[in-house]
């Protein structure tokens, strides 16, 4: 079991009007259940089931409505399968990991603030393109790269996990992609602590 934070952003955000905004980071939660399948003393496979929050914060100015700020957090269920290389002594071991990940958006929340007035709405995903031929993409395919340390404590290990996640799936899905569309990709840096108990430790 592991829990911590995810410092998330997206690479680009484009309004329906075609105006692009520069996103900044938001902090979300990150929880994981995982197992460590040993192939050898130094190498293993680590499949996971993660709950994490992705999103971003954007601000700008509209000639009709004035200054505005938009913040969104989207809740994802994500399944990475990571190749894991371990090194160091038994008491304190380091590790590095890399592998693919598939995520599914469960829902989320968006807050719009215009001249100090805030409105919060749920982000809901459907399976059909809207009348305007656009919808938010629910599935994410990406990769995870990370490192960390395992400190022996009691029957198991205290785990420090640092990782960077990058998605390859555009956040927006169009029936017909506009010529000026700039793709948006989720990015995130995760920091978490956990405790791992070996199932078959000799």
Commentary on this structure:
- This protein has 202 residues and is mainly beta.
- Helices cover 0% and strands 70% of the residues.
- It is built from no helices and 14 strands.
- The protein has strands at residues 2-10, 13-14, 20-21, 26-34, 37-38, 43-62, 66-88, 92-114, 117-123, 134-136, 139-153, 156-167, 172-174, 186-196.
- An 8-stranded antiparallel beta barrel has the order 1-4-6-7-8-11-12-14.
- Strand 7 (66-88) and strand 8 (92-114) form a beta hairpin.
- The radius of gyration is 20 Å and the shape is elongated.
- The two termini are 21 Å apart.
- The model has no long low-confidence stretch (mean pLDDT 87).
